[in-house]
Amino acid sequence: xxxRGAWYVAAWADELADQPLAxxxxxxxxxxxxxxxxxxxxxxNSCPHRRLPLSRGCxxxxxxxxGYHGMVFDTAGQCVEIPGQAxxxxxxxxxxxxxxxxWNLIWIWMGDPDRADPAAIIDxxxxxAAGWATNRxxxxxxxxxxxxxxxxxxxxxxxxxxxxxSLGSADTIGVPVKTEVGDGRVIVxxxxxxxxxxxxxAKRVGFAGKADRLQHYEVRMPAHAVIKDVIAPAxxxxxxxxxxxxxxxxxxxNFVTPVDADNCRYFWFQVRxxxxxxxxxxxxxxxxxxxxxxEDLVVLADVHAGMKTHGSKLDLATDLGxxxxxxxLARMIKAEAAAN
Length: 340
Description:
Number of strands: 18
Radius of gyration: 22 Å
CATH superfamily of the largest domain: Naphthalene 1,2-dioxygenase Alpha Subunit, Chain A, domain 1
Strand content: 25-35%
Helix content: 10-25%
Number of helices: 5
Largest sheet: 8 strands, antiparallel
CATH architecture of the largest domain: Alpha-Beta Complex
Structural class: alpha+beta
C-alpha cells in the first residue's frame, strides 16, 4: 500500500516548537520533537511500558520523557532513564525515524534508515530566489485515500468542472493532453491557445486580452506533485519556448502524506515570478488557493466513499496519466518488498 523508502512531509517547521507533536504517517503513530538544543527527532509514539503515547510527555534536554512513569528516551529511541530503577531492560526502546528540515517543512523517512539521504528531498529551484515570491497555506486534512489525491493532482481535465468559477474555464474543456513517463515521475501537460483566462488568473497576469496557457501537472513518486502554470499573451510564441518578461509563472508544490487507508494530509505552497515584495498579494493568492482546494476536498471525500462502496466500472482517456503513476508506484512498492 505504501512506499516506505521515501521522504514524506510530516509537518510545517513552525508546527514544531517546545511541545511534542503527534502524527499518523503510513498508518504508524509517530511523535516529532525538537530537543532543547534545537535538533529534530521522530520516534514511535508509544511507550513500550504501558503504551501511553510519548507525545503526551515532555522534552527534557536532548530527550523525551514519557508522561506516565517518567521513562526518558533519547533521539535514537533508546531509554536512558527509568526513575527509581538502575537497570534499563534491552526492550526499553522505541523505533526512531530519520528526519530533516527543508523548505520550512519537516520531512520524515519511514523506511530503512540506512537508505535515508536528505539530498533526495525535492529541489525547489525558485525558493527564496530574487524576483520570486512564496506563499503558503495551512496543512489540509483530506478524507480520502492518498492516491485519489495524487490522481487529482495529475488531472488537468477536472479543473473545468470542479473549479469552473476559479481555476478553470470553458475554453479548457476537451483540449488534448500529452503524457510523459520516466525518472520516477509522470507528467500530464497541455497548451491551451488563444483563450479567455479563468477569473483566478485574469486578475493577476498583468496583460489584457486572450492568452496561451500551459498546464503542467507532474507527480513524483510516491506522492509529490508539481503543477506549473505558464501564461503569456496569445500568439507571442510561448508554446514554442519564447518566454519574455511579460510571461506569468506560478509553480505550485503539493505534498501528499498518507495517514491511513482513508485519510491523507496535504501540504502546499506556491512560488511566483510577479509581485515579489507584495505581502497583500501573497495573502490573497493563499486565500484563493484555499478556496479552490476546498472544492477538491469535497469532491475527493465523496469519490473515496463512492469507490469504497462501488468501485469503478471504466477508465477514461483522461485517466492515462494517473493509471501510469499508479502502475509505477506499484512496481516500486513491489520491488521494495522483495528487497526486504
